[in-house]
Amino acid sequence: MSLDSLVRSMGYVTRTYACAEECLADYALDSTSCMISDIRMPGMNGLQMLEQLLARDMRFPVIFITACIGETPEVKARELGAVGYFKKPFDSEQLMRRVQHVLSGRPAE
Q: Which ranges carry the Response regulatory domain (predicted)?
């Protein structure tokens, strides 16, 4: 099951993007309740995208998934305020528990 399908199966509305630049250009981004992003993407990486979001004062929970090896990306993600960091292959149940925890108190759309 794709990540998009997994999140939808929990009752949430999702939007997917091919790259960080496409995401940052979306005018609906300000209605985001939680973002799940890879770190490695074509063009701008996920950490750079989070820096851009913060520079725009767009603050919502961000969870990263990645195949990146090493401590540096995780440390940087946490410094930027990421609320979750999952290394591939990740346990989809753990990821969904994290999403539910982050969104607790927010209604599923």
A: 1-103
Q: Could you tell me the CATH number of the domain that includes residue 11?
A: 3.40.50.2300
End-to-end alpha carbon distance in the chain: 20
pTM, 2 dp: 0.90
Task: Check if the beta carbon of residue 63 is closer than 8 Å to that of residue 102.
Answer: yes
Domain that holds residue 89: 3-103
Calculate the CA dihedral of residues 34, 63, 14, 2 and round it to 10 degrees. -160
Average pLDDT over residues 56-72: 90
Residue of 3, 83, 87 whose CA lies nearest to 39? 87
On whether the CB atoms of residues 94 and 85 are closer than 8 A, the answer is no
